[in-house]
Design brief:
The strands form two sheets. Strands 2-3-1-4-8 form a five-stranded parallel sheet, with helices on both faces. Strands 6-5-7 form a three-stranded antiparallel sheet. The protein has a domain of about 120 residues: Rossmann fold. The termini are close together. By secondary structure, the protein is α/β, with parallel strands linked by helices. About 50% of the residues lie in helices and about 15% in strands. The structure holds adenosine-5'-diphosphate (2 copies). The site of one adenosine-5'-diphosphate (ADP) has 18 residues, from helix 1, helix 6, strand 6 and helix 9.
Amino acid sequence: MPELSLILFGPPGAGKGTQADRLRIDFRLPFISTGDMLRNNVKDNTELGLEARKFMDAGDLVPDELILAMVGERLKEPDSEDGFILDGFPRTYEQALALDQLLSERGRRITAAILVDVPDEAVVRRLSGRRVCVKAGHNYHVDFDPPKHDAVCDQDGSRLIQRDDDKPDVVRNRLMVYHSQTEPLISYYDEQGVMRRIDGTRSPDEVHDHIRAVIATLRLEDDV
Ligand code: ADP
Ligand code: ADP
C-alpha cells in the first residue's frame, strides 16, 4: 500500500497530540513531534536542548536550521519510509519548503495537511488546563480529560505537571507566533490541494472520527 504522509496542523493546544495518539494506532505510522523531540533534548541536556530551551521557554520558535537538522535526521530513519504523522512541523515557510524538497528527493509528497481548527479562546482554556506526566508526556486536562487520581498519570503512575510554556503570558506569545508565522502555511498547502480542515472544537472522539473519514476519502481518491 502506498505511504500515508500526514501533517497535523493547527494552533498550540488544538488537540494535535491527542489525535496523533489515536491515529498512530489506527494507521501504525511513526509519530514525529518536534515539540516532544525538543523536550527530550532539553531533558537530556544535549547541545540542541540547551540552545532550544531559551526559545521554548519564551514561546518563540526554535531557529529553522536547528529544527531542519533534527527533522532531517529523523526522516532518514527506516521507519518513516512508509509514511509518518508530523506534529508541530512545519511551522514556517522555510520549514515547509525544506520538507517538500526532502520528500521530492525521495520521490514522495505530503498526502494531506490536516488543520485542527480551534479559536484562540478555546486554545487558552485548553492550554491553561493541560497537565502532562513527567515520565512520558501523557496528556490530560483538569476539566476535559481529568486523570482518575488527582495529579497522577493513569498510564504510568508518574506525577502530572503544568508545562512552563502553558503559563498564560507564554501562551499569549505562542498564539501570536502561530498567527504570524505558521498560519500563513494554510494557503501554501491549500494551493497544493492537500489542506483538509477539521472542526477541532468538537469532542476528541468526534474530531478523531472526522479525521479518519478524511483519510478514508483521500485513500479512495488517490488510492493511497
Ligand atoms: P504546541 O503545544 O504548541 O503544539 P509543541 O510541543 O509543538 O507545542 O512545541 C513546543 C515548543 O517547541 C514551541 O513553542 C517552539 O518553541 C518549539 N518548537 C516545536 N516545534 C517547532 C518547529 N517546528 N519550529 C520551531 N520551533 C518549534
Ligand atoms: P496540541 O498537541 O495541539 O498542543 P493537545 O493534544 O496537547 O494539543 O491538547 C491540549 C489540551 O486540550 C490537553 O489538555 C488535552 O487534554 C485537551 N484536549 C485535546 N483535545 C480536546 C478536545 N477535543 N476537547 C477538549 N479538550 C481537548
